Amino acid sequence: MSFIVLPVALMGGLAVVMAIMLIVADKKLAVKENPLIDEILEALPGANCGACGFAGCRDFAEEKVKNPTGPAFCPSGGESASKAIAEILGVKMEMRKPTVARIKCSGTNDVSAFIGDYEGIQDCRAAMLVYPGHKICPYGCVGLGSCMCACKFGAISLYNGIVRIDEEKCVACRACVNACPKHLIEMMPKGSKIYVACSSNDSGGRVRTACSAGCIGCMRCEKACPVEAVKVTDFLSKVDQEKCIQCGKCVEVCPVQVIRDLREKPAEVEETVIA
Prior knowledge:
Largest sheet: 3 strands, antiparallel
Shape: elongated
Order of helices and strands: HHHHEHHEEHEEHHEEHEE
Number of domains: 2
Oligomer: single chain
Distance between the termini: 65 Å
Helix content: 25-40%
Number of strands: 9
Number of helices: 10
């Protein structure tokens, strides 16, 4: 029995010694983490959306502790998170003009012409590998929900072939902007109420064939604007939000009503929310 007991005892003793060494090493070599990191993490929404430019909330918190006065800002947490973080670090709160995501497309199913049906993975990026979409307009919303899946705040829903963004729920994390393969979603100042809901650069004739709600580049809006905030370039109207005085004159003259006026509450519609 001794030839069995002795090796077992030696191995057991060695294991105990190694365990003690590991415990001592852990205590001696441990890197102490700044407790402010956990405090900042509690103040953040925990979405790990990456909108701040860091891999996640912990990376953001670590950077803020290392560089309290740096240009780090949490779009998802907004002003409340910024205020809490400023109080934790004892620095002045960083303020930014609030923005919101808006989709530059009006091509719902009832105004768009179709080239066929798509049957495959319900993902815009997957569909784009086959063709630009099931609508004739190559610029329009595919409507399969890549941006909806990317949004962690339930701000995006599907209505009649395109997506809609609830500005009250939008936290400006930019996840939808990065997810859209056609780059149709743009961040705009939250206070702005007038924008062009189209991205087509086709001529007026081609647009009329593809979508009755698309910008035809008629330039009426540009001529009507009293402050030169509206310009038509490559058959597409664009509103300079910095110059726009929200007078609504461009909205009044637009023959296809593609310039949205968010001062008017949109009609209630049935929406499909993708979890």
